[in-house]
């Protein structure tokens, strides 16, 4: 045994000094950390309620020390904790959603009252956040309005909804790209209008086209023939 090691009285092994708990006054515990953990685990198994009460008393008497240790441990293991939480949330997604839904149903009035009070106290902050988000996400909001308009008019066929949503997002991206490369504003248009004059089209992937905004606004809700549809090209 060297000056940098110590023999454990439980397992009899020579271990580095940092493998022993400090007992105050510069003294080290006689048993190593592993043996102390095993001993505590055995005590818990023998009388769980007694050990839980002892732990509660210790935490009550040493609140500041316990808080400091928790804070120090968290700082050292922050990323590990986050990864563990993400993994747990991913593997329990359905259970979390069900629990959240049940809580919202049981506390609907309380949640609504909280949101109303928060809205009154923070109306200026909420307004500024909305303005900033709208300014930074114009295209995203335009995509959302297109989908909402289609759903409200009942023009979204469920059999192709997933593909249509994908194509809508891709078309919006293409509109932004054309704006950067060619210039001007571009819109995602319905070739057959959702609520046209004498015709009602569907919000479906093969009824979408990326066209100049001037053409889309002048076209309005009219159904154009093939020649007219190509007039902007």
Q: Which sequence of strands runs across the widest sheet?
A: 1-2
Distance between the termini: 88 Å
Which structural class matches the secondary elements? Answer: mainly alpha
Look at the structure and give the mean pLDDT: 83
Principal-axes geometry comes out as: elongated
Q: Provide the β-strand percentage band.
A: 5-15%
* Rg from Cα: 33 Å
Number of helices: 11
Oligomer: single chain
State the share of residues found in helices, binned by percent. 55-70%
Number of strands: 6
Could you give the order of the helices and strands?
Answer: EEEEHHHHHHHHHEEHH
Residue ranges: pLDDT <50 for 5 or more in a row? none
Jot down its keywords.
233 residues, 11 helices, 62% helix, mainly alpha, single chain, two-stranded antiparallel sheet
């Amino acid at each position: 045994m060297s000056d940098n090691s110590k023999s454990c009285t439980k397992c009899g092994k020579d271990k580095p000094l940092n493998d022993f708990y400090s007992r105050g006054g510069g003294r080290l515990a006689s048993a190593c950390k592993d043996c102390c953990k095993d001993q505590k685990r055995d005590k818990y198994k023998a009388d769980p309620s007694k050990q839980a009460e002892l732990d509660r008393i210790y935490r009550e008497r040493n609140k500041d020390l316990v808080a400091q240790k928790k804070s120090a441990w968290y700082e050292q293991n922050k990323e590990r904790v986050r990864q563990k939480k993400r993994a747990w949330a991913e593997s329990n997604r359905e259970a979390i959603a069900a629990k959240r839904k049940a809580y919202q149903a049981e506390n609907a009035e309380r949640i609504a009252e909280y949101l109303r009070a928060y809205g009154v106290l923070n109306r200026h902050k909420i307004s500024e956040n909305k303005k900033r988000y709208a300014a930074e996400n114009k295209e995203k909001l335009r995509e959302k309005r297109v989908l909402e308009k289609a759903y409200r008019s009942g023009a979204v066929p469920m059999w192709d909804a997933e593909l249509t949503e994908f194509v809508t997002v891709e078309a919006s991206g293409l509109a932004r790209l054309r704006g950067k490369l060619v210039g001007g504003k571009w819109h995602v248009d319905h070739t057959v209008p959702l609520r046209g004059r004498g015709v009602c089209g569907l919000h479906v992937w093969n009824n979408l086209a990326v066209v100049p905004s001037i053409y889309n606004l002048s076209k309005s809700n009219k159904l154009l023939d093939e020649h007219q549809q190509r007039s902007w090209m």
